[in-house]
Specification:
Elements lengths: L3 E8 L5 E5 L5 E4 L2 H22 L14 E3 L2 H16 L3 H8 L3 H8 L7 H10 L13
Helix pairs in contact: 2-5, 3-4
Length: 141
């Protein structure tokens, strides 16, 4: 799954630019388009973390329809994939911890988008759920 969400950018009367995502909570702004896009990435991760914290499915990105895309960073994308795989397989934190031979608190941290986990641990957890993470490198637009 490619976690790339189209962002809505709106220029305000004072020249700042507001960034928001269709169907996701929150908004942010920047003095320039580039700054607004950087801030939008943080907003996107924070907004998606609400779904993970609530234990519900993360909404799929809507069609871009010409809007710029904001990509979820690699580690956080892997964590989102882990969260979704756990939901699809109806695997609890406790069960995944048992499969991995770790404490349940380790699984909670692995799923926390705002916690700095090691990608290798997330990959191991995905593997325990029958998933494999891959990396795609794209040119910066």
């Amino acid at each position: 799954m490619l976690y790339a969400y189209p962002v809505d950018l709106e220029t305000n009367p004072d020249g700042t630019i507001t960034a928001s995502f269709e169907g996701l909570p929150g908004a942010t702004e920047g003095a320039t388009r580039e700054e607004a896009l950087r801030e939008a990435r943080d907003l996107l991760v924070t907004s998606l973390s609400i779904y993970v914290d609530d234990g519900v499915a993360v909404p799929m990105p809507p069609a871009a329809n010409g809007r710029p895309l904001v990509y979820v960073p690699m580690l956080e994308a892997a964590k989102l994939a882990l969260h979704m795989a756990m939901l699809e397989n109806k695997v609890s934190n406790v069960e995944l911890a048992r499969r991995l031979g770790v404490a349940e608190s380790s699984v909670r941290r692995m799923r926390d988008l705002l916690h700095e986990s090691k990608i290798g641990r997330v990959e191991s957890a995905l593997h325990a759920l029958g998933r494999r993470a891959t990396v795609e490198v794209l040119a910066v637009a």
